[in-house]
């Protein structure tokens, strides 16, 4: 197992496996740049979701958003786990990663037409570009790392085959078969990692993976706050309901802060001890990331409702905010909190999440949800304090 890059020809390093026990393994500047570019794609999908929600087409909005967001999440996830195992940070690795970023920007450009017009051609092209660049990374890893050659080349072959199928779907699939073929290809994509690693697993770093997911969650939450703040500022200038907008903006900020608090309430790397737990952790973050993006879109829908411009009534408009918040929180609870909390704390947490879901029917906008989420953050702090006391010697 090699802890770092080994010099080779042409200013390149041999792409050998990183040490999963390496201390102080932090995200590289390349990884952070990659995250920022992919956040643009998340923002594009959120804008597309709002465009459909603002016309009152909620079922179509949810389905098309789920489809577009899969391409963003899966491309990001695959690079993140690969980089944890084989990051060399040399010039070829950087250039290949920048190609993947270009694909993410194409996905961002195609998100709105995919969701409003069901035209997935641009999203598919961007996604295939990202994934074929990933094939190049795996082929290089297989060439340099003899011990992981079979894993790397199975991964590269699986990705390449499925990308050809995505292109076939884009060019020759009848419209009536679009959803079914999409579902089948998603299943093929998700099956690649376990099939590629059926004999040997790549040496990912638990703390590094947990940090990467946490940072992307943080960046996407920040983008949501920025987008929401800009929307509120634009609306306030000509609004006849400034008090309602400011109240909603304050509630939105509290919700975002509480989501951050809940996510980072407990260390995440502790839930990456086995390969099964790692798959669950990585795959469940699809829901976590998508919920954050949908939360940003919901704030825009609420602005319309406050202004009396959108087709959705106050209950449905509030639900576009509170349901994503509840889905996010429930996912984090299931993934990282429930095993650390006592029975009473788990019961209280679920009751507060249920209160967030019920908020739209209380007739007070999203403010009660902000109160419930604040209560959940306080509950986690109290539970943490109680846990600390019970672990003290002599108790």
What does this 3D model show about the protein?
This protein has 395 residues and is mostly helical. It has two domains: 6-196, no CATH class; 206-391, Up-down Bundle (I/LWEQ domain). 75% of the residues lie in helices and 1% in strands. It has twelve helices and two strands, in the order ββαααααααααααα. The chain has a two-stranded antiparallel sheet. Helix 1 packs parallel to helix 3 (91-116), helix 2 packs antiparallel against helix 3 (91-116) and helix 5 (149-172) runs antiparallel to helix 6. The two termini are 43 Å apart. The model has no long low-confidence stretch (mean pLDDT 88).
Short description:
Helix content is 75%, strand content 1%.
Q: Tell me the Rg in angstroms.
A: 22 Å
The major β-sheet equals:
2 strands, antiparallel
Strand elements, count: 2
> How do the strands line up in the largest sheet?
1-2
Proportion of helical residues: over 70%
Total count of helical runs of at least 4 residues: 12
The mean pLDDT is 88
| Count of all domains | 2
What series of H and E elements makes up the topology? Answer: EEHHHHHHHHHHHH
- Terminal residue distance: 43 Å
What overall form do the CA principal axes indicate? globular
Strand content: under 5%
Parts with pLDDT < 50 across at least 5 consecutive residues: none
Structural class: mainly alpha
